[in-house]
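User: For documentation purposes, I need each entry recorded in a consistent format: the amino acid sequence on its own, followed directly by the corresponding structure tokens. There are two entries in this batch. Please keep commentary to a minimum and don't merge the entries.

Assistant: Recorded as requested. Entry 1:
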Amino acid sequence: MPATTDHVPEPSRTDPALLRNFCIIAHIDHGKSTLADRMLQLTGVVEQRQMRAQYLDRMDIERERGITIKSQAVRLPWTPTSVPAAVGAGPGAGAAPLAERPMTHILNMIDTPGHVDFTYEVSRSLAACEGTILLVDAAQGIEAQTLANLYLAMENDLTIIPVLNKIDLPAAQPEKFSEELANLVGCEPDDVLKVSAKTGLGVDALLNKVVAEIPPPVGVADAPARAMIFDSVYDSYRGVVTYVRVVDGQLNRRERIRMMSTGATHELLEIGTNSPEMLPADGLGVGEVGYLITGVKDVRQSRVGDTVTSQSGGAGTALGGYKDPKPMVFSGLYPLDGSDYPELREALDKLQLNDAALVYEPETSAALGFGFRVGFLGLLHLDVVRERLEREFGLDLIATAPNVVYRVLMEDGTEHTVTNPSEFPEGKLAEVYEPVVRATILAPSEFIGAIMELCQSRRGTMLGMDYLSEDRVEIRYTLPLAEIVFDFFDQLKSKTRGYASLDYEPTGEQDSSLVKVDILLHGDKVDAFSAITHRDQAYAYGVRLVAKLKELIPRQNFEVPVQAAVGSRVIARETIRAIRKDVLAKCYGGDISRKRKLLEKQKEGKKRMKMVGAVEVPQEAFIAVLSSDDGGKAKSAKK
């Protein structure tokens, strides 16, 4: 029999009918982590003296920025209060008959991120649940990411409980947004629960509704064990900690398990639940959510989305339902000190276990040395990964400007996949394809004109527009990913005074008139400065970059032309003037021919030097031009 905790009566460990698996999904800043805090307090798993805000957010970056990056699972015991009157009455009221007493249910709750870049974390959490709480801010209403998460939940056939949060705010409009939410979910406005996660108002009623409406997990208790890995982390002392949801059968401590995708076998050194700290147990049964520790240090042994089964008499078919995330944005990460390259490789290996969406491959740059081309889900994802590498592993990194993946077809029929501008092929091009996304923008209707103007300037095509209410509109556009990946969101926020919200999903690719802009220093191409841009924007990009390089590259002993070129055609030029010694300083007058002779001699020397001289570009210039920090565009954390 699995071990029990102080909070949990024994039947709840074995009876799946008493289990409820659910997650909280919402837009960023709508109060998911605060609601999770109140649930921890209300169910008594965290004592008041240990309580702190954002209890489940373990990373410093999460706490500083006030955003959730990693999903966190926690086990909550809850005895529903909607029971016969005698039950739960005071000591003098007399106990209710045993059959009427409510059972303590076990709620496995997962707190998920709200940002569009971490949608993959949300999708993994949804696969481990039967129901979800859809949380909406009563002062702001439905936002783009709320819709995206709602559609994800509907695709997974989950029971959806609509909830309005922050009803204690003076600006709250619960009646208006209850109606909006009811129209989306397909229920009555009265069915939308109203809570205040800050004060705890209505949270007990919400937990009762979770028990009443979300179905218990369904599985075959005596079938071969099958458990789905929905998350994993790396612990430097204990190795890989794997989070699983048991679907069929049971897993027990000290038995040997097998990972179905790799075939690797391990001994289960420890198995248990998160309540919210790790609590060892003897085993996990049908529908339970918990963790496994096998002592494995190799991060590739535990893949998110894999199925765990017993080594002897294990299952024959793996669980489905996971899609590999596709990176949307690529950026080069290089150590400032070249000797840190092995440490960067090891750090990325470990981080990939915590972040299944991270993909990378080695690459070299003539300017920056050895590094990695890393794929990210978006700009915030890039920023968070870079900051974690610098903080958790003590690395100093340069991140090159982000770019997307292009597909290039040549006239001779060959095809190239380009993740780095330096890979763009030379020769006659037939077609160049770039990724496009379907963007959904929600904003007050007064900003329709400004939003349409911005989208059309970014080569957008309008798909449609719907009014969610009298003063809120949903606008849908098809946009090239390259146009929104850098500063589109910043521009959108500034044009709508911060009211607009954006969500996007990839929808394929389109043929576009794209060209590679090369930078030539003293007639030589510098691959690190190349960029792929639309033909109409190539001139503006070339002018901007050569002007920047003119300021950053120090003057040489000879004149250096800095040119931007598309193919063999130069589209922009600046000249870095030579450092010139005053050779006439020693002449105190006399005949002009003496001075002319000295100047001609200097001119001949400059000409010879120009023929053999090489332009020294300092590391600072490369960092300033290539870095993604220009203007802090990667820092826009809140969508």
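Entry 2:
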Amino acid sequence: MTNEGQAAVYDVVIVGAGPSGAVAAKRLAEEGMSVVCLEQGSYPDYTKLRHSGLEFELTKNQYFATNPNRRKDPSDYPIDVAESEIEPLMWNGVGGSSVIYTAAWHRLKPSDFRVRTVDGIADDWPLSYAELEPFYARVEHDFAVSGVGGDPAYPPGFDIPLPPFPMTAIDRKFSAAHDRLGWHWWPGSNSIATVKHNGLHPCVRRGACAWGCFDGAKASVDRTHWPACIKLGVKLVQNARVLRVETGSDGLATGVTYIDRESGTTHFQPGRLVIVSANGIGTPRLLLNSASTQHPQGLGNSSGMVGKRLMMHPYGTVTGLFDDFFENWQGPYGQRAYSLEFAETRKDTNFYRGAKWQLMGMGGPLATVGSWPWGSGGNVWGENFHETVRKRFGRSAYWGIMAEDLPSEENMVLLDPDVTDAQGMPAVKVKYKSSQNTLDLLDYNVLRATESMKEAGAYEVSSTPPMRETGWHILGTVRMGNDATDSVVDRFGRSHDVGNLFVMDGSIMPTSGAVNPTGTVTALALRNAEAIIANRRSQPVSQTVEARKVGY
């Protein structure tokens, strides 16, 4: 069933209600622009969480699993990962993946913007750290980032707006160990409130950040941004599967076609400007599915780069067992401390770039016998069960090692030629293989993290190879650049091919850095929204839309 109707023309149509879409919607609405956001999912139902109950560890993945292929919510779509070493993880709903991220917060380092200049590989960004710095500071306030400012691994000026979590016994073990080794360490910076801020409550340290935040302390944008967006007049349409970005005879975007997943009705939502914020898989999926006579390779894909250069931060772990008992189940789950000692290219290695280490929370008793972060888990059941729990619970810690992922055109997102989602839109096929550089990089960092564990007093240390279900950071598939022949969007996220089409999510990042990308993704969205505001009077708009005679 199709309902063309006469939908109101909005200044901006945004696809995706995750972090970048929410940041853009809020800033544009503050300037009086009319904004509608289409989201394929709905608000998270936090009443399904049982963080304080005995059943939490048995039910946490029932509704808030990070893997959409396992979760299979009606808002999800099939992703073929048969040819991928890493499985992409995401949340499809209002808040996007900020609902299930662990909230570790970073900026990229200056060299991350200049990898070609510094190391002679990959690419330089079409902007610098200095250009993005003021936008980093603004989103850090909105996202309630807590921690300790002044990390010497960054240029001066990286201040943290909220106070840090208190250091615990395990944090002190590793800070002292790194001081003795002469290696960098710093207290964890997290987008988790330690005091009341921007509608958030102080964290009670349940250590359950990765499965939604029952207490309302983690800065997911369903809490930090969407209430403000709604008050500003942004229209949020839930359960709206966007099938295509449409274009007029002048080649400019006219709006989007979507299906109401509940009624099955197809709608066209017109708009003067379209922003796609559907993550590094959903965005190329939509652009490729928007192919037309004018854009036969997919919308905005004259370079052939849409979907290519996928980066997902391969991840390994190094775990230590200790004699001392400490509260390792306490939050924050994602980052109690971190080290950037080995985050950039070193002359004494056989690989380029580096990795970030994050000291992680271990979880509750059942987490001591799970595959994470122990690998296969070994022989932990039966007669070994109680001894395993005794050794691990309250007496273990691990470094999560996040490798910088260099771009390769062999790693990509494609439309699945055979499988569709429930609304008939082609599903996705992901091809990804770690490079030898990545494998060497991880091997080196595992050895160094093992030294760290032993220096901190671990009597037994184990490690895992790159882990499969770790694709939280989906980057690079709609890369930005100055040259339209080898990039999809310009330095402000505007399509080289379609003058009123923008992309605002991690897909535009030319390189990945070695740190969690949400800070960079949201800073870019704010910067690009400001550019739209500054240029709104000269913004090209399709004459098909202007003919509807709805003014600013």
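Summary note for entry 2:
The two ends are 32 Å apart (CA to CA).
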